[in-house]
Amino acid sequence: MGRNYRRTRYGGKKIARDKYISKAQDGYEAPSVYVEEKSYNDYDIIATLKKNVERKGYIHPTKIQDQAIPYVLDGKDLLGLASTGSGKTDAFLIPILNKISKDRSQKCLIIVPTRELASQIQDEFRELSKDTNLYAALLIGGESVRKQIDSLRRNPQFVIGTPGRLKDLYQRRILKLEQFNNLILDEVDRMLDMGFIPDITFLVSKLKQEKQALFFSATMSDAAEKIANSILRNPVRVQVEKESPLKNIDQDIVKYQSNQQKFSILTDLLIKDSFEKVLIFSRTKRGADSLTKALREDGFRADAIHGNKSQNNRSRALDSFKRNNLDILVATDVASRGLDIPNVSHVINYDEPEDFKTYIHRIGRTGRIGKKGNALTFVN
Fold this sequence. Notes:
six-stranded parallel beta sheet; seven-stranded parallel beta sheet; single chain; disordered N terminus; Rossmann fold; 37% helix
């Protein structure tokens, strides 16, 4: 079976425990994600947009922004390889906002895999679009369809959504996809994992033939390449080297013998000063709720996000965690996709991940943008 895996009692493969143990490299300094010799004033964008960027406190563009923005401003189709946390949202929002500010006949559809990512993009849109009279509708599951229909009646220049809700509103003849001449697909690799490709193919087929298309993915599988080739025309390819989570994250295992002992060990860890902002992964929704309830009863500021929670509750919990009103967020893997949360001090795998790819995704929530991170995995 190889050294990387061991058998579970269910007969499946589990990650070898030595794969959970690794020290951050001494003296390792992650390369800066910023291009410090550049500023946003170097780009040919309208003054209002420059002012909004400055208001957000942005000084230097990130590498993906510096590579992508000039090409998008020139009207090129683009294939961008970049992961969450690289600044890619602004790499597409800034130039497309500029384009539509100048030409109100343009409309943009942004398709993403998760509700959380869609909401994050809308939040960024609101701040970057101040004083431009541009409007975005957010079309995601778990929210009121009636409100979303009302938002479409305002004739938004941008629509940000997840594939299922977008398809539903198109089939109800409320979302007029044939009006859109700009397309952004974000985190395509995640959409592949989640089985969204038939929906995406359907949605894209309804857009205007003449359009500018931007395609972002952290990895480029054969399936993703096939989709890109069917959508993009003579695209420019830009790539930002993905920072290895093995370089700047201390990783270790925590052994336990019983579930009672497991929880006791967890709480002993969480009261330590260094555990400032902790993301805990649970394998199941029920497990996430049960763990959150037990942590709250022990006096911890904790909440959970998973697929059975309403979108409003998920958004509220995530926002509280980002604003440090919570110290602990318990999440399932599906709910954690696309999360970009600053300053997570520790990731704890309370339940082991299904595979090594999931493990890398989980621990990548800590140690972001050059900071040192910590990851612990509980093993029986």
